[in-house]
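Need a sequence for this fold. Nothing fancy.
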């Protein structure tokens, strides 16, 4: 597996029950901002034996945006509803209500470069994806 794919798997596996992240957030936490689309490709191509809560990764506008995938939008909605994430029939929801914001312990697990963390914590919109100022 590639380092990027391993990273996606690690980060998505750490997203708690009832919380969501955007594809771009996963990329940001990997140290590769702007690679949200690649995160989606990784999740879409996961082997069946990889147990991962892929449904917790959503579009940053607060909608389920699965297309041309082995998973369906209705399947993702159903899984999110089972985690008490209120998703409307049109596949939209209040992402900020359910967005996972990592704490310092989570960030330390990622082992990101201090200069990178400083850069993203001061840059908008990235800074809003962390509970505390890094």
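Here you go.
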């Amino acid at each position: 597996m590639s380092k990027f794919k391993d990273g996606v798997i690690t980060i998505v596996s750490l997203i708690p029950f009832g919380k969501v992240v955007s594809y771009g957030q996963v990329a940001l936490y990997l140290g590769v901002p702007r690679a949200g689309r690649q995160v989606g490709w990784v999740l879409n191509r996961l082997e069946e034996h990889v147990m991962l809560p892929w449904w917790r990764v959503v579009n940053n506008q607060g909608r389920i945006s699965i297309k041309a995938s082995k998973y369906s939008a209705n399947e993702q909605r159903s899984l999110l509803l089972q985690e008490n994430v209120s998703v409307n029939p049109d596949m939209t929801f209040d992402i900020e209500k359910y967005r996972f914001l990592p704490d310092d312990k989570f960030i330390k697990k990622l082992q990101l470069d201090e200069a990178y963390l400083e850069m993203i914590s001061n840059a908008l919109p990235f800074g809003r994806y962390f509970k505390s100022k890094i």
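For context: The beta strands are 21-22, 57-58.
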